[in-house]
Amino acid sequence: MQQPPPYAYAPQGGPPPPAAMVSKVEMTISCEGLRDLDTFSKSDPICVVYSLDGNRRHEIGRTERLNDTLNPKFQRQITVDYRFEEVQKLGFYVFDIDDNNNDVNKADFQGKCECHLGQIVSAGNFKRPLDYNGGNGGSISIQAQEQGGMQKTIKMTLKGVKLDKKDFFGKSDPFLEF
To answer: The whole model's pTM is what?
Structure first.
């Protein structure tokens, strides 16, 4: 017989199930020193963000394409669900797009950065080199900002029993500081 999860019998107001421990994170992406892959102009970069699971990848979102720049500062932010108890591997792939369809299958690959979402969130301003076939493809910076998804109210009742008497004349005035 399969055991129910430990939170199944928690009293009302008890701990929430693990799936509820999620907050939204907004990521702003920029790159520096991208390789120039166009002949008569500069590259037109776009960054595609993937969730990586083994050999599979699932697109989470993509920035806008910026024309003729090797140091793009993308305006479109990518929002992801940050699950605290789970390792979430992300891939940031930068492409040079030359058509109006933003089709990455027809684009020139400029570099990638694979990391965990927890690294980005904890760093606040995450900067790493872009890997281009084992060489340097420039660098990527990712700023992460949590969107307040975990604002919860906690109600506690505390009681002190047999506390040491610290005053000579009268009762002690104990207090608790968080």
So the answer is: 0.71
